[in-house]
Design brief:
By secondary structure, this protein is an alpha/beta fold. The chain folds into two domains: 9-257, NAD(P)-binding Rossmann-like Domain (Rossmann fold), CATH 3.40.50.720; 259-294, no CATH class. It has helices at residues 18-29, 41-51, 65-79, 103-131, 152-172, 191-195, 200-213, 226-237, 260-263, 270-274, 279-293, and strands spanning 9-13, 33-38, 55-59, 84-87, 134-139, 177-184, 248-251. The chain has a seven-stranded parallel β-sheet, with helices on both faces. Helix 3 (65-79) packs parallel to helix 4 and helix 4 (103-131) runs parallel beside helix 5. It binds nicotinamide-adenine-dinucleotide. Nicotinamide-adenine-dinucleotide (NAD) binds at residues 13-14, 16-20, 38-40, 60-63, 88-91, 112, 139, 141, 184, 186-187, 189-191, 194.
Length: 294
C-alpha cells in the first residue's frame, strides 16, 4: 500500500456505484479518509462496511443544494477537515431533443450534472481554505467534446462542467485550490441500465456484459473500467498534480482521437462510404493493395 493521499480527507459524490465507488476504494488504498455520498443508501452502506472506518456513508441528493452542503460539511465533522472533492454523481437525464425540448426535464438534468458541480465547489472552498488549499475534480464526459455519445441536455451540461472548471480555476488558484475535470470515455458502469429503466441488479448485470464485450469499441482494444477513471482522478487529486489546474484529462482508450476509420483500417472512410463500399469490400481492397505492394 502506498500513501499518495496520506492524511487527506475527501468527499466523493455518486460513490455507491461505478466510477465513484472505484474512486473511493482507490483513495482509501492511498491513505485517505472519505465521505461517500450517494442517493443509493443500501449500496452506500455496503461500501462503507466493506472499506471500514476510513469511509463514512452519507445519503445525499446532489440535486438538492441543502443535501449536498450537508454531505460536504460531513467531512470536517467526521474527519476534521476537507482536502479533496470529487463531484461525480450523475445519470443520463433528459433524452429530449431540440424540437421536443421540455423545461422541467432540462432543469432537472442541469441541477444534477452542472449545478451540483458548481454548488459542490462553492461549499467545499471554505473548508479547503481552512486547510491552506485543496483539490477539486469534476466528472465531465467525452460527450462534452463531440456529438454522438449522449443526449443533448447531458452533453451540454458536461460541456458546462469543463468550462466551469476553467473559470473556477481563475478564482481558486489564489487559495491554492486546484480544480480539474476527468473526461471518461465509454466506461462499463450501471449508468446505461439506468438510462434503459433497469433496476440496480439488472444495471449491474448490463455493466458486466459491457465490460466483457466492449473492447472492440475502443482503439486501445479493451473495455474501459471504473478503475481506469479512478486512477486518473487519484492523479488529479494528489500532490503529484500540484501544478495542474483549470484543465481536463481525457481517459477514453483513444475513442475521441478520430472517427472509427482513423484507427480501424477495415472501416470504410468518407470516400469509400460515398462510393457505397462495405466493410468487407474495404478490407479486401486494403489486403489487395498490400499484396500489390509486396
Ligand atoms: N460510464 C460512462 O461511460 C461515463 C462516461 C462519461 C461520464 N460518465 C459520468 O461518470 C459519472 C459517474 O457515473 P457512472 O458511469 O459511474 O454511473 P453509475 O450509475 O454506476 O454511478 C452513478 C452514481 O451516481 C449516483 N447518483 C445519481 N443521481 C444522484 C443524485 N441526484 N445525488 C446523489 N447521487 C446520485 C447513483 O446513485 C450512482 O451511484 C457520472 O457523472 C457520469 O455522467 C460516465
Amino acid at each position: 500500500m502506498s500513501s499518495r493521499l496520506a492524511g487527506k480527507v475527501a468527499v466523493v459524490t455518486g460513490a455507491a456505484s461505478g466510477i465513484g465507488r472505484a474512486t473511493v476504494a482507490r483513495f482509501v488504498e492511498e491513505g485517505a479518509r472519505v465521505v461517500a455520498a450517494d442517493l443509493q443508501e443500501e449500496a452506500g452502506r455496503a461500501l462503507a462496511r466493506e472499506l471500514g472506518d476510513a469511509v463514512r456513508f452519507v445519503r445525499c441528493d446532489v440535486s438538492d443544494t441543502a443535501s449536498l452542503k450537508a454531505a460536504i460539511d460531513a467531512a470536517p465533522q467526521a474527519f476534521g477537515g476537507l482536502d479533496i472533492l470529487f463531484s461525480n454523481a450523475g445519470a443520463v437525464g433528459s433524452i429530449a431533443g431540440v424540437e421536443n425540448w421540455d423545461a422541467a426535464a432540462w432543469d432537472a438534468t442541469f441541477a444534477l450534472l452542472l449545478r451540483a458541480v458548481v454548488a459542490g465547489a462553492s461549499y467545499a472552498v471554505p473548508h479547503m481554505k481552512a486547510r491552506g488549499g485543496g483539490a477539486i475534480v469534476n466528472t465531465a464526459s467525452i460527450s462534452a467534446l463531440q456529438a454522438g455519445y449522449a443526449p443533448i441536455a447531458y452533453s451540454t451540461a458536461k460541456a458546462g462542467v469543463l468550462h466551469f472548471t476553467r473559470m473556477a480555476a481563475t478564482e481558486l488558484s489564489a487559495h491554492r485550490i486546484r480544480i480539474n475535470a476527468v473526461v471518461p470515455g465509454f466506461i462499463a458502469t450501471s449508468i446505461f441500465g439506468g438510462m434503459l429503466g433497469m433496476d440496480a441488479a439488472q444495471s449491474a448485470e448490463l455493466a458486466r456484459a459491457v465490460a466483457a464485450k466492449s473492447g472492440s469499441a475502443n482503439p486501445i482494444g479493451r473495455s474501459g473500467l471504473p478503475a481506469d477513471i479512478a486512477e486518473a482522478v487519484l492523479y488529479l487529486a494528489s500532490d503529484g498534480a500540484g501544478f495542474v489546474t483549470g484543465t481536463h484529462l481525457t481517459v477514453d482508450g483513444g475513442l475521441t482521437i478520430g472517427p472509427r476509420h482513423a484507427w480501424d483500417p477495415d472501416t470504410p472512410g468518407p470516400m469509400q462510404t460515398a462510393l457505397g463500399i462495405s466493410r468487407e469490400q474495404a478490407k479486401a481492397m486494403r489486403e489487395a493493395a498490400a499484396r500489390a505492394r509486396g
